[in-house]
Design a protein that fits this description.
By secondary structure, the protein is of the alpha+beta class.
């Protein structure tokens, strides 16, 4: 694979994986199975290893989970909450075991096998034995504050139980050692299957939508703004680890599990010790045989090296420990018939073919529809209308067509082709029958409009505080906005008439809308929601073209001159600006007073011709703000260090980019030096 194709594929993988992570962690609405996500993730890891120049700091390979939602306060974890590597079959686990044994120089390793509960990861902090804070995993570093909601879960102790023992029988009375000053319990919030079914039935009876599965129900219940809603849901909690551990008596995972029980936490009774790989696989198979009889959903097992000393010796990589792995169950499959194939328009404009099936029960759930992902996947699998097919619930959640049963074809099957026009707005779509992604590029398409509004107003786009999901829904339902530019015509009177909005809140939102007009060009480019264009590319485009008019007039050849913009990304940008409806919208945004060019575009700036790379943690401002400052002063921001880099701005905990800069002789400056150069207040 050449450099251009690698760049495009990496960009696409980063975009898709980030989208699926948001759907899973933030929206609780997964679209693909774990196995498919893992396959895409592994492909991205491989490509970034082969082409490190295209790896970016915000790549999914460097993140855990997803960013915390804006409606919750943020909590910084004292110890990062890492994700786990996955093993999809026995051979992948055996390879993991071989790596562990080789690294430790041992013939056999003692493991602990735990059921992988399908729920929401949570950290609960106790000070002097009293619950003071609870948070989601978030992106691994920063989570969402859900303290009030977690207090309503009956399995979660409000106060830790004190330990009691006889120090030396016959000499002293019973002694209660002091509780730790800080104790960070971690585990899984879940919803048992039978209460889940009952709750879903009650929702259906009340005319409400049902939750797709217990995991989504648990995540949605915990991430409520009203703790009373959470309290009404049948949530439970299993503890299985801690954050920071200062107890010197705890030397192993089994010791820790005993301590968690002693403190009053529920710990799964299905956890088993295992000496060596063979015993691990035996325990995993037993767990699989018990799966259907359990009162909660599990999707595999978590295998951990038991000894903490050996865990420390093995260490961690950027997003996962080397001493643990998730061993996943294979998905369940059944046969049925593809009655027809329809096309859905996603929230980002992606056209997704969906098979309408003869109803069939898969894993106890009636399946009537299944995603076909894209036209290339249909071609690869050779799925036709009228085929007998194998269907599985991906990760026991999302139905998916695995393959056609060729032997059962009778010649009446029909080959499917993607439509030339969007089923929602009837505008022409971008895509060819040999391409993966087909998209509706009309930013005002009804099927995408809600998500466009939410993205447009988000913090890293136009940063309109107060215009989140709920407000977008209210505005659309009230008929106040039909396209993005309508946001800038809203009045206090119109907004204050919406549900639970007063004059003060309405005035605050109108002020935020007005302030967004001054956001930099890069933010506006990102806000437009151009396919495959994220924050980094938006900054590069703003820096290279200087104005939205120049960007709109650029050819694909012009676009490819921008760093890391390959042919696929260039075509996506070009197609966006070929839409007359998009250009008309941009003109209305210009008339509304939005910033359409860099501040320095007219006459250069003090950073003109200079390229900056940021590494480590900045103290005075975020990286986003620092990057915006560089661009506003005529400079460029890059995600990687090269000989063409002018300055590397090194914050605390700077990593490989700092080393690369020193290796290449690139000037390294501090955050204070940067601010002085920019003429900004320190």
């Amino acid at each position: 694979m050449d450099s251009g194709k690698a760049s495009d594929r990496i960009r696409w993988l980063q975009s898709e994986l980030s989208r699926h992570a948001r759907l899973y962690y933030e929206k609780d609405q997964p679209e693909i199975e774990d196995a498919d996500y893992d396959a895409l993730f592994r492909e991205l890891q491989d490509l970034e290893a082969r082409f490190p120049e295209f790896s970016t700091p915000d790549s999914p390979t460097r993140r855990v989970g997803s960013a915390p939602a804006r409606q919750f306060a943020q909590v910084v974890h004292n110890v990062p909450m890492l994700s786990l590597q996955n093993a999809m079959d026995d051979s992948e686990f055996l390879a993991f075991d071989e790596r562990v044994r080789k690294a430790l120089g041992l013939q056999s390793v003692d493991y602990v096998v735990e059921p992988k509960i399908d729920g929401l990861s949570c950290e609960i902090v106790y000070r002097d034995g009293v619950l003071v804070q609870a948070s989601t995993r978030g992106d691994g570093q920063v989570g969402e504050d859900i303290t009030a909601n977690v207090r309503t879960i009956k399995d979660v102790p409000q106060r830790l139980k004190a330990l009691s023992f006889n120090a030396e029988p016959g000499l002293f009375d019973e002694v209660s050692p002091p509780l730790p000053e800080l104790f960070e319990a971690r585990g899984e919030i879940y919803m048992p299957t039978e209460p889940f079914r009952q709750m879903n039935q009650e929702r259906l009876d009340a005319g409400m939508s049902a939750f797709a599965n217990p995991r989504n129900a648990a995540a949605g219940s915990v991430r409520q703004l009203d703790p009373a809603v959470t309290a009404s849901r049948p949530l439970r909690f299993f503890a299985y680890t801690v954050g920071r551990l200062d107890d010197r008596e705890i030397l192993s995972q089994r010791d820790l599990l005993r301590r968690l029980r002693e403190y009053g936490f529920q710990v799964s009774s299905l956890i088993r010790p295992a000496r060596g790989a063979a015993e691990v696989l035996d325990a995993f198979k037993r767990l699989g045989s018990e799966r259907d009889s359990l009162p909660f959903e599990i999707d595999g097992a978590v295998v951990k090296v038991d000894s903490f000393e050996l865990q420390r010796e093995l260490g961690e990589i950027s997003r996962s420990p080397r001493w643990a792995i998730a061993l996943k169950f294979p998905p369940r499959r059944e046969k049925t018939v593809v009655n027809r194939i329809v096309v859905q328009v996603g929230r980002t404009g992606v056209l997704t073919p969906v098979a309408e099936l003869e109803p069939v029960k898969v894993g106890g759930v009636m399946v009537r529809r299944a995603t076909l992902h894209n036209i290339q996947e249909i071609r690869r699998k050779d799925i036709r209308i009228g085929d007998v097919v194998e269907v599985q619930r991906a990760g026991d959640v999302i139905p998916e067509v695995v393959r056609p049963v060729i032997s059962e074809r009778d010649g009446n099957e029909t080959i499917f082709n993607m439509p030339d026009r969007c089923p929602s707005c009837l505008e022409p779509v971008a895509g060819r029958q040999d391409e993966i992604a087909w998209r509706c590029t009309n930013i005002s398409c009804p099927a995408q409009f809600r998500e466009h509004v939410i993205h447009f107003a988000s913090k890293r786009a136009m940063d309109i505080e107060g215009l989140g999901e709920r407000m977008a829904d209210l505005m659309i339902e009230a008929g106040l906005i039909h396209e993005i530019s309508d946001i800038y015509a809203l009045t206090v009177t119109q907004i204050s008439a919406l549900d639970r909005m007063g004059d003060k809140s309405a005035a605050k939102l109108v002020a935020a809308i007005e302030a967004s007009k001054r956001r930099p060009l890069a933010a506006l480019i990102n806000a437009l929601g151009i396919s495959l264009v994220g924050e980094t590319t938006a900054r590069d485009l703003a820096s290279n073209f200087g104005s939205l008019a120049a960007l709109a007039a650029a050819s694909t050849e012009d676009l490819r001159q921008v760093q890391d913009v390959g042919p696929i990304v260039a075509t996506s940008i070009f197609d966006f600006f070929q839409s007359r409806r998009n250009l008309d919208l941009i003109e209305r945004l210009r008339q509304a007073g939005l910033t359409m060019m860099n501040e320095s575009a007219a006459g250069g700036g003090p950073f003109e011709g200079k390229s900056f790379v940021f590494t480590g943690s900045l103290q005075k401002m975020t990286r986003d703000k620092a990057s915006d400052l560089v661009i506003s002063l005529g400079g460029k921001v890059s995600g990687s260090v090269s000989r063409g880099t002018s300055f590397v701005v090194a914050g605390s905990d700077a990593g490989s980019k700092l080393a690369k800069a020193r290796e290449l002789g690139v000037a390294v400056i501090s955050e204070l030096d940067f601010l002085a150069m920019a003429g900004a207040d320190a």
